[in-house]
Amino acid sequence: MAGLSLAPAAWAQEYKPDFNCSADHTKDSIATMLCENSEAAKHELMFDQAYYALRQIVGKDGWKTLKQEIIADDAAFSECLDPSSLVGPQNIPQADPTCYITHMDTLTDKYKARLSGAPLQEADRPIDQHIALQQDLINLGFLKSSSRADGVYGEGTRAAIMQWQKSHEDMVADGFLSDSDAIRLDSETKNLPVSKAVMDRNSPDASILPEKPDQTPDIHSYNHQSGSNVPYYFMIFSAIVIALYATAKTLQTKAYQATWDAVSKEISFQKLNLQIARTQKLTKDQYGTLQTAAWAREISYFMETRIDNIIDSGTTNKNLRQKLRANAINMIADLAAHPLPVNAGTTAYISDPTVFDTRMDPFDYEQHCALILRNAGWDAHATKKSGDQGADVIARKGNVRIVVQCKLYSGTVGNDAVQQAFAAQNFQGASGAIVATNSTFSQSARQVAATTGVILVHHTQLPTAAEEIYTRVNDLPRYS
């Protein structure tokens, strides 16, 4: 993780599983193997990072369902038992560490695919860094000094993380350590005075630390010796600067908190819609690979239409805006990942031809383009359902007839659309052709357009493009 260089805990080279190896596991091949094989135990801890992140996301209401899911997934580990090789006093099948690690890594990837934002950053973090960050929480006093940093973020560690986050007014107390949070936590521990770090650990050596000498200068003595008031005025000036800085910082903090309250309120209000959208947008391809691009676009759309205005009107500080946006995206991802209520509907968005939206139905987008032209004085209608040889919209005004190809895209529009528009123009005997999109055009599309005379525009520019054709056909003067 960039910017974070954590020293591993003293026991980081010898990993133990997340259960007590002192208990009797002689009847459990997997447990016995994990207690004896450090590398296998390490991969179990790596899985724990993803599992406990999901556990924090679903909350107590979802723990039972999540537990049932992992119990079902555990069945795959039966393949790692060799019944022909019996070990121990109970003659149990020997467990193969390599097989276990392979299955555990697959399971880890499966659970991590359901994470995003801060939870995913946390789950991607090396286990040694998890251990070191837990030790930081111990050193700062947020976890009990008797706690053992083992890399597993259970309820105690989550509570400690939230307590640490709440101690900073500019942080969101969600219980997750994002990359930026981890860097900040580690930095705070490094900057911790030695005496405080030792006292927080209840060290018996704390009492023998030497007292820090009083280094406060005697102003009156200094002035008497130097015969100058410069140091005195300098200290007054410094005090004023510090006071102004503290005031500005306080105002910034208040602005941040007020803005974040408004942002989090809007996200929470839209929680159900976001949950539904996530279930609709996260799909798997024919190979079983999770496709996240559509969900990422949905988050961007939600940020642009519902959140960015709140942030921009709340603060002008660039750094605070960036932090607010990052925290908003994390909160959106976290809330949307919560299980849907049983009675939740299946549709969060209804397409409307009168209102442009990147999620709208393609035919509604064609109707939207026709509506734009009608509002500009053209007799325009969408033709997709009647099938007019590639023309999505046909528009007339006086003696001029134009055809329009409407492309609702998330990517770049290629030259196929230009060729379709040109073919439709010839078929309809139209005066001109336009390709309208909400997106952008490829270089090859622009080259074909230059050759064929097809006009390429954003859909909001349709009236201007149509008027350009009308002016050309009627040989009217053009005005800039």
UniProtKB/TrEMBL annotation:
- SUPFAM superfamilies registered for this protein in UniProt: PGBD-like, Restriction endonuclease-like
Occurrences of domain Peptidoglycan binding-like (ranges): 131-168
Taxonomy, superkingdom = Bacteria
Q: Which molecular-function annotation in GO is an example for this chain? A: endonuclease activity
Coiled-coil spans in chain? none
Q: Which residues form the Restriction endonuclease type IV Mrr domain?
A: 359-462
Give UniProt keywords alphabetically. Endonuclease, Hydrolase, Nuclease
Gene3D superfamilies per UniProt? 3.40.1350.10, PGBD-like superfamily/PGBD
Tell me the Pfam families matching this sequence.
Mrr_cat (PF04471), PG_binding_1 (PF01471)
| Hydrolase keyword on record | yes
Q: Which PANTHER family match?
A: MRR RESTRICTION SYSTEM PROTEIN, SLL1429 PROTEIN
Protein name (Swiss-Prot/TrEMBL)? Restriction endonuclease
What organism is recorded for this protein?
A: Acetobacter suratthaniensis
Query: Lineage, please?
Result: Bacteria, Pseudomonadati, Pseudomonadota, Alphaproteobacteria, Acetobacterales
